[in-house]
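Holo prediction. Input below; ligand is zinc ion.
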Amino acid sequence: MFTILVSMRADQILHPTPAGLYCPPGDFFIDPVRPVPRALITHGHGDHARSGHGAVMATRQTLEIMAIRYGADFAGQRQAADGPVRVGGTTVSFHPAGHILGSAQIAVQPDHGPKIVVSGDYCRHPNPVSEPYEPVPCDIFVTEATFGLPVFKHPDPAGEMTRLLASMAEFPERQHLIGAYALGKAQRLIMLARQAGIDGPIAIHGALQRLCDYHVEQGIDLGPLVPATAKQVDAQLVIAPPSAFASAWVQRFRDPVIGFASGWMAVRARARQRGVELPLVISDHVDWPQVTRTITELAPREVWITHGTEDGLLRWCELQGIPARPLRLVGYEDEPE
Amino acid sequence: MRAFATLLERLAFTPARNAKLRLLRHYLEATPDPDRGYALAALTGDLKLRTVTPGLLRGLMVERVDEQLFALSYDFVGDLAETIALLWDTDRDEDVPLHQAVALLSETGKAGLPAAIAGMLDRLGPSQRLAFLKLATGNMRIGLSARMARIALAEMGAPDVAQIEEIWHGLTPPYQPLFDWIAGGARPEQAARAPFRPVMLSTPVDLDQLRAFDPADYVAEWKWDGIRVQAINDGGVRRLYSRTGEDISASFPDLIEALNFDGAVDGELLVRRGEDVAVFGDLQKRLGRKQVGRGMLDSHPASLRVYDLMIWGGRDLRDLPLTDRRAALEAADFGSDRIDVSPLLDFATWDDLAALRADPPAPVIEGVMIKRRDSAYVGGRPRGPWFKWKRDPHVVDAVLLYAQRGHGKRSGFYSDFTFGLWEADQLVPVGKAYFGFTDEELRELDRFVRNNTVERFGPVRSIAPKLVLEVAFEGLNASGRHKAGVAMRFPRISRIRWDKPASEADHLSTLKAMIP
Ligand SMILES: [Zn+2]
Ligand SMILES: [Zn+2]
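Structure of the complex:
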């Protein structure tokens, strides 16, 4: 018998299926949207990390976050990623993505063939709740395009906090209720508020409690937090998940200023749709300058785009002469809320 | 311009009037002259600058951004000025004084404009770029009336709103003398001819309250359903003002032409064809037009029905008792058949007046006005001397269809209600109401909405059509913009009919039959 060493084509190593990105030589899925026998998971956001898989490999923090959200039995087997690991006929490794606590990019190196990096959701702005993004050289770079249009240039979050503080000073008698996704955004917002000089208690909606506790356990000092569940909430700044704003929970606040922290708030029509009074442009995703800079730096042979407003990024790649293709994965939210 | 840009953004997202006023007042207090004056004029639409065309702006972009990327971006953002503000590539973010931007837009020649605009955009960060482009395209869309601006100004210093209104029309941006006055300086000289003078307003009344007064002390007249105006001819300078002091002369050239007198009079603007006063909807067609076509002038002629004289024959009559002003009014010659005098009603007792009010001779009468014979003409809304006794509102029983979450004090409550009436076996939306109920009723309605939601669209929920609301309204206009073909005036929820099944709500035909 001869063993013929044939280098595999990229789409034999990783290709989209209805359940998510599948890697035949390793027999695993990355961030599958349906239950599968073996899943590698980039980060704990609900659209990437789902329960019910046979085996899950992820960073220790992502596994712990999944246990908080879904219960300890969220998967048959759990394996914390630690250095390069053999999975089937591939070697996989996890690298910080700068998106949320525990978030990672997954590098897939087949024995023979191109190296693919699946970046998941990633962000290159400094983020006090996440390890910074690490550029990982690769042949194929798989990127999100949540903010894949040149109109998205996320401002310095400190400037957005200045706007929040200005509003709190302008309307001192009104509580400021800011909507932020429970995992990542909420804790980042709290840290930004601390950096901006808000030392006093910040009230958090009950749905944030366990995830905030977990961040504190991981060494992220969120400062004094009080529950926003009592009839009377004694803090001018209150943070809640977006879903809370449709519930009767809001009714305990008399004449609040309602805000929302999201990259989408950069576009007025989006902010208006939300019906918010104080849109704050704070995002955990790469904006246009970051995604284009990342591709330029990594100089991959090919770019694959998982989800988002991919038409803009595809056009940019075309103008740069970089082969790019959309994977059009379904099941991922623009920016989870 | 950074503070101005921030103000624009806050105003655009702040629904509550009081919050808007506070934002504006803080800005005006913190901003030096002349920038605050230009800002004020920009917000109220009184800043006349060269208007930059969308074509020019697009031209600037295609030189700088790939056309496809621009098209994708514009498609996503939906607003040209905003798209360009977001796309423009510069690292600079200078705080350019607003007056520099104003000077650029008022002084640059056509040929130099594209380069001048690009040069300015190069110096600005994104929020200032948007403010500058909104200024350049003359498209603030902030919804701030000159009236609100004057209220904010009145909160800043000693002069009250009425005093500011009185001199407002003599002022031009950047209003330096006005700000000096507010800061404690001298009152600006009223330089302009035909200034607006604060209008005297009435308070609502009912029969029970009236019984405390002697009918002999009062006169009464019809309350006509048009627009309360002040018409002036001051030495040949003619003006028509709304009761809040907006100059609406340009929309009513036919009436302006007819102001062949010397004085300032208080009256009702109406569309009148011979003796027939047209419905409010006809007058509405004349509103807000910068130019009025010949056809519209012929088919919808404007007229004035005078209630009172403020200045007449060179004399200020406002301190005289009403009976003296009325005598002068009845003796006055207006020299035009577009102008007539509002007749007084003949009554001896309040019950006589109640009978007249219940059966007015024309559908465009909204009720009666009751005025003390000895009342001086006092700007503002003094309590007592003048009353309005409105006709009872119309009511229909409608079915709640949609509810939207409120803002501010109503945060978290579904407080904006869309209701519909039957047409065959369908419910057709006919209007929206967001007041008329008590706080307790609001809580009950909110609970009902949450328990009967069919679908959600953002802040809006569609509701199972079960709850009947009695909706009161002041009048009806035929409307092409509304699906049902009618638009209610001042609709509010007068009763919640928990007892009434939806099938017994009114039909659209019932409502349409009420159109005068
Ligand atoms: Zn994510
Ligand atoms: Zn995602």
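Residues A 43, 45, 48, 99, 121, 336 surround zinc ion (ligand 1) (CB under 6 Å). That is the main takeaway for now.
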